[in-house]
Amino acid sequence: MKRVGKVAALAGLVALLATGCSGDEVLRFGWPVGVTEQADKMRWLWTWSVIAALVVGVIVWGLIFWASAFHRKKKNADPTELPRQFQYNVPLELFCVVVPLVMVCVLFFFTATTENQVLAKKPNPDVTINVTAFQWNWEFDYPNEPKDATGQMIRTVGNSGEIPLLVLPTGKTIQYNLRSTDVIHSFWVPEFHFKRDVFPYPERNNQDSSFQNTIDKEGSFVGRCAELCGTYHSMMNFEVRALPDNLYKQYIQLRTQVNPATGLPNTAAEALAAMNCGQLCTPHAVTTQPFNTDRTARTASG
Q1: Which CATH architecture has domain 127-296?
Q2: Pfam families this protein is in (predicted)?
């Protein structure tokens, strides 16, 4: 048994080293890397759930091995002799009922607690974004930011050549208010580890049409519509650009100013280009070409 244990430990060590995974990657147990505080909470629930499942699995595997190794039929055993019976062992039966029940209750408690933390909303978020989905495009409005040079709300809408850019700050509480003008869509950024359907009729919506999160990593993250919504559903993408708070404030300020070349307020791409802050401020998102989604044929309000 001692030799078997050493061989098993060595095999486990070799398997771990052969994967080339870091300690953090091992503890993720396949859970993808998130970019929000809420995603981290879900990750820890997953990690501890898997560890608990592995502990239970090791105990069960050990009992199976013990039963098969030490309670197998002996060579000289009397064939008429029955093994020891446990069907009337009350303590064992209570153990087999109470322990699984306690495990389920503990798992439910931590699941419900994590869900409440992920769905929690502060009364006064730092940034509010109105997200409008329509076939087959997105509109992002900033209702609580200063108005642009024409007195209108800062707004970003995609077109057939460029998907819309949703620029957000890191380290701030952001609220997303979702609505649709036609059919059911779904707002999904894989790195958020969160998805919520966008309904056209608020009075018929059986779920909360808003949620909050806090982005804790800078970068660019592709967003998608995750609800089949028509011909160009697969092209209905957008990009989240997470900037440090100081760059986000600079971006908002530039959006309120007029571009001398066009005589119109700066677009999202023009504002990012004017910031000149490297890869993080690349002005253009991923293009939809060669697909022509005819996005200009409809507007978010029509």
Answers
A1: Sandwich (2.60)
A2: COX2 (PF00116)
